[in-house]
Amino acid sequence: MTSNKSVVISGSGLWTPEYSISNEELVDAYNNYAEKYNQDNAQAIATGDIAEKPFSSAEFITKASGIKSRYVYRKDGILDINRMRPIFETRHRDELSHQAEMAFNAAKTALSDANKTAEDIDVVIVSCAYTQRAYPAIAIEVQHELGIQGFGFDMLVACSAGTFALQRAYEMIAAGTAKGVLVINPELASPQVNYCNRDSHFIFGDVAMATVIEAAESATSEHQYEILGTKAVTNYSNNIRSDFSYLSRADDTDPFAEDRLFHQEGRKVFKEVCPMAAEHITSQLNKLGINNSEVKRWWLHQANINMNQLIAKKLLGRDPEENEAPIVLDRFANTASAGSLIAFNQHNKDLASGDIGLLCSFGAGYSIGSLALRKL
Ligand code: CO8
Fold first, then answer.
1. Can you say whether the dihedral through the CA atoms of 312, 314, 315, 316 is positive or negative?
2. Least C-beta-crowded within 10 Å: which of 8, 69, 208, 256?
3. Domains of the chain, CATH where assigned
4. Phi/psi class of residue 148: alpha, beta or left (left: φ > 0; alpha: ψ in -120 to 50)?
5. What average pLDDT does this structure show over 54-68?
6. Which contiguous run of DSSP H or E holds residue 69?
7. What pTM was estimated for this model as a whole?
């Protein structure tokens, strides 16, 4: 969609948890767990009834993904080989819930970056891969905590939850049905990570991002990005899946069983999504009359460094220069919908007025969402 009314991203805010886990710490815990598992199940492994747990490697993780470390909302429990999942303290129903707290922290920073207060916002969208409950919406809890009048709702689109929500925000501002929209992506991935699975234990981190969208005529912040156009597409695939569900109570399955947690066919995803993303972006830019070579910055989804380099190469016809397609995976890992927005948050202020940038997410669904931006 494109609009006659100028709509801008006027601020963004990043919140990171106080805890992080390095590849070495994670691999050490996993390998101790695997060794114990193999000892405890030696007989069944010898008879071929169950498979031996393979060992993980910090070097493999860095080479295959670009990830060196990840933030986690709570560290306790994840590295305990008798638990292999985080421990969250239970909060009373009158206390701010975990995910609302993450969202609130990012939102406050975004509001201040946009030079706005609660009075300037009338819509709150919380958009991410999982919400900690079905209702009341986390967005409404955050709206209440911030003192915002208007409405809020949650939406789930896995890795593309950020760009898809920004598109909703853009449409509301363009249509004049909202004056200011706060899009928040509190990604609380660690409870869904299978830390007992060598192939996926390293992939995700916890973080929250928030973005303020408003009409250019009301924006007063130092760094503003006009949204030139948005494009979203989905294409059904089972290659990235999480079956955790409230239906488990009715179909008598364990909601936390291995096949209910995040799982993927990583190689297939890599092969199928890279060309889809490059084509999606190129066709969007073409439609806007922009040549790929005119784009100064590519804020791409952060799932895998090799994926980003391949997509950037397809887009540019050459390897990207340093900082042209910034990578934040080393410190943050894959943070689902927040990834491309963290790249934007950390790498936008050096652009000059008139510079064009492209924000794009790709992942489970499959889903791809992109926004073409111009610095004002
Ligand atoms: N240590 C050592 N060796 C390993 C490890 C490890 N940790 N993991 C795998 N290996 C082994 C494999 O078993 C394999 O061995 P062999 O050759 O003997 O079979 C070998 O290393 C190579 O394995 P792969 O072929 O799987 O390795 P790749 O080079 O393909 O890298 C990746 C694996 C990193 C998973 C890569 O395929 C990738 O990143 N693919 C893209 C995936 C992607 O983008 N997924 C998106 C997921 S996120 C998303 O959409 C959002 C979901 C919502 C959030 C969920 C929050 C929980």
1. positive
2. 256
3. 225-375 (3.40.47.10)
4. beta
5. 98
6. strand 69-72
7. 0.96
